[in-house]
Amino acid sequence: NWTDGSIAADENGQPLGVNGFADSLMPRNFYNLLKRSGAHRWFELMLYQDNCPGESLRGVTELQPAGASGSYVYRAVCSGKLSLHVNDAFGFYGNNAGYANVAITRR
């Protein structure tokens, strides 16, 4: 499970995970303007490729689940490095805690 400062659960009271949490949980509305991706949830697991960041930026909530395994399908839109991060504000990653186990397979 992850925590973002003092936020350890989503809007449904569930522990934070790859889907992150809603803007409404932020203590101040203007914080929402600071997220790396305003179109995605706070702390959502994000994927992008440096060679085509605009076209490749996806949040895990946009990906197709691959059965009940907890896996997701991401189709690369260009060649190059794949980067992952949680959707937080630049400069505010220091109050985050937790980890993710990520396995990437090629199909």
Structure explained in plain terms:
- The chain is mainly β.
- The chain has 1 helix and 7 strands; from the N terminus they run E-E-H-E-E-E-E-E.
- The mean pLDDT is 92.
Major β-sheet strand ordering: 3-2-6
Uncertain residue ranges? none
Mean pLDDT: 92
Shape: globular
Q: Strand content of the residues, in percent?
A: 15-25%
Specify the biggest β-sheet: 3 strands, antiparallel
Structural class: mainly beta
- List SSEs in N-to-C order: EEHEEEEE
The Cα radius of gyration reads: 14 Å
Number of helices: 1
Helix % is under 10%
Strand elements, count: 7
> Between the first and last Cα atoms, what is the distance in angstroms?
28 Å
Question: Could you outline the blueprint of secondary structure elements for this entry?
Answer:
Elements: E1 3-4, E2 45-49, H1 53-56, E3 58-59, E4 64-65, E5 72-73, E6 82-86, E7 96-97
Antiparallel strand pairs: 1-7, 2-3, 2-6, 4-5
